Amino acid sequence: MIEALELFSNSLIASLLLSFAVALIGPLMLINRYNYLAASIAHGSYGGVGLAIYFGISILLGATLFALFLAFLLALITFKEKYPEILISLVWAVGMSIGIIFIDLAPGYKSDLLAYLFGDILLVPNLDLWFMVGVDLLLLAFVALYKNHLLALAYDREFATLRGLDVKFLHTLTLIMIALTVVMSIRSIGLILVIALFSIPPYIAEKFSRSYVGSMVLSGIITLIVMIAGLFISYTFNISASASIILFTAVLFLGVFKR
Length: 259
What we know:
The protein is an all-alpha fold. The chain contains 13 helices and no strands. The chain is 81% helix and 0% strand.
């Protein structure tokens, strides 16, 4: 047991930081129906990974800059286009294709790139943990400042506009926060699986909460439980931690879905 705790020290810290992020941004993504946009940013961010490897810069930096670019692009698309679904899907596909092509063009040995697609929470470096702390603090400030505005935006966008809220600014800022949240999750959960983690616990929490704050708190608790359970399953059966976390989350979802 002691060996397990030593092995999972960074993993447990990452789990706690991710749970805090899910609590803050997950319910907002759910009620504002941003999950598809978040998925597009998550998958498209692989372009930043590929560019970073090709140009020999930090993958964390490359993914962050590319994800922010995608956030601004998707904010523009969703306001300019009447039917943005096709373009959102195009951003998703093109971003991943850019990443694959630049990784193919990059000379020399390629590191384990599956860790960026599917995550490897057992190998989260200290730099990523500090980045996660910074993103969590930004999310906390974002929610504290704009929670009521974002709730008004979710329930009646036209009314929020009439009340003088800057809808475009709030929409863009939310996508920026989602982009940063995606990047902070790359090494822990991976670009492919991260949306499940940020969607399912808030959905479950909504079923058992009577208030928005209660939904946030319960989302964080559920996320922390599934992550620790996934780590335990991974250690016990010597299988992928990220996949174990998501599958355990899916089991909880199916249990709630039948209610």
